[in-house]
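Observation: inputs received (chain + iron/sulfur cluster).
Thought: call the complex predictor directly.
Action: predict_structure
Action Input:
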Amino acid sequence: MFVGAQVHRVIFEATVGPGILLYTGRRSNSNHPFTVVSFWLMVSHLHPDDVRAFYGSFAAPITDLDCGQKCSPYNQRGVPFCCDTRHAVPTAYQAEWHHLRTNTDLWHPWEAQDLGETAKLREAAPDGMVLIECLGHHHCQRAYRSITCRAFPFFPYINSLGEFSGLAYYWEYEDRCWVINNLAVVTTDYRQQFVEMYDALFDREPDEWQNFGHQSRLMRQVFAERKRTLPLLHRDGGIYQIMPNDERLQPISPGDLPKFGPYEIADRMPFPDER
Ligand code: SF4
Ligand code: SF4
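Observation:
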């Protein structure tokens, strides 16, 4: 996880929410927390064949350009944030892990350099969930990216009526992920495939519906406390902001969406190439 990095001290905060495991550590030598983002199932009914089908149907690029080239300059290691286990440790469903380890050598079980750190993350992970790490972004195999790789930075947003209304993002990455700061660049194909894949996943695994419902409630609470609206890539193709208290939807122009961290600074630059 921290290959090549000096870890002086790690402070862990674990938040296990249904559907998502967010496990955040902050190193004393870094300004950025890292977070385990995972999708998990209490009792999984998934089969490797389901995973194969999901991989086949959810393969469209998230944008028309390589967004890793946009965010990696802001990462100390020059690596896309979502491919850097100092920032995000992927996990796989058990069936997904079976599919991956029998078809590719891209992945191995994730382990921190610090044994205690590894033990803490494993303890925090629900039974059957596998923390994984790939060989690095120079060795990526698109066909064998995990579901977490493909979905990042989004999760399926479930409103309080229980409707899967679109794509919301993991707000912890607002200051790192270029896509979050440029939601209009997400391709139509990607959005459609994301929705279709999760519709199929929810049919196969209804518990996940509850799990992402919990994550969506959590996002409403957090954004209500911050007095912010939630950006949503709606399944109808539009971009909306959701009022966190009553869940009213308002269309929003992409240009009116806020930017964060270095992207907010770059947005003020006079030359578009610097954004
Ligand atoms: S999804 Fe976000 S964090 Fe991942 S490579 Fe693209 S811009 Fe970077
Ligand atoms: S498999 Fe590819 S997309 Fe996923 S973490 Fe590794 S390099 Fe990034």
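Thought: report the result.
Final Answer: The two ends are 29 Å apart (CA to CA). Confidence is low (pLDDT under 50) at residues 1-30.
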